[in-house]
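Model it.
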Amino acid sequence: MYPTISEFLKEYGINLPLPIQTFGFFVALAFGVAAWIIGLELRRKQQEGLLKPSTRKITVGKPATPVDYLIAGALGFILGFKVVYMFMNYSELVNDPPGLLLSFKGNLLGGILISALMVFQRYRENKAQELPKPVEKTIVVNAKDHVGQIILLGVVGGLVGAKIFHNLENWDEFIADPVDALVSFSGLTFYGGLIVAAILIIRYGMKNGLPPLHLTDAAAPALMLTYGIGRIGCQISGDGDWGIVNQAPKPGWMSFLPDWMWSYTFPHNVNNVGVPIPGCEGRWCHELPEPVFPTSFYETLMCFVLFGIIWMIRKRITTPGLLFSIYLVMNGAERFLIEQIRVNTLYHIFGAGITQAQIISTLLMISGFIGIWYTTSRRRNSINETTG
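Modeled.
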């Protein structure tokens, strides 16, 4: 396992201390890929006439307001307060990036200097653009121009939702230490992030001329692929998203594959879970006492295959909302199946044990099937009315 990018580089003889955790790196990569794919799909839909550009009025040449300077100064202070301290205490940053970022540690002088610099820069920019009389202009906003805001809402909503649903699923941990449970970067539930982010993005689309059905269809391929990319980070870092104990011998049909693809002890995992590794020195010196199913790896494979299917059929499906409905069924089925061999908190309903992910994935599949029925029925009725 490689908890950080630096640990991965050490494997190849490169000793470069970097404050980049492996899981965080793959999450960032996933959001970057999502932005690229959603941009491609929104551009394609506009070229095909399914989405139309919108217009927005802006006022050019207005003088900056005190609030503008206040925001610039506040952002500058936070940036300088943290960045200067991190630069002067780089080893501390490398050892615990999240802990340092969320702490109150910082450099006061750095905060003041950067704050003053950003306020001055804001003043210069405003003076260069200020006009004797402000002018109102109408600008054209293409569908792809919304990608930045969509990804920002996805990041914020995803992290908030993932944290909320994780704490609901692990209520005892939250009660024991609510502050750490809320601010730590560990403990994220995908479906919680998906639900909250979807609500924010759909609301944004409705306010900005992006019909929800077309917007969700454009996001469907990205959602499937980026989930698989995120699971690569889980697998490589060993963040705890593994399966149940697997002591069974590797099947003969898998004999040509590495043993870790069947069962694995996740040595040097980022959570330091398990038993000490004999002779190991350093921060991450634990491995599981018994091998388990590498479920993150399995999910990556399944998501890549399902992404390929969605990507191949996306242009053939012209009914708005149908592609996203298919995604819901695929994603729900994938997660429901993997939960059979994955470690997770169980809820006991009518005497049967079921996980939060299985409950949500079942609801997603039901929603997907309803969506498929509704969208196809609506299109069939539309065709009948046209031909009739």
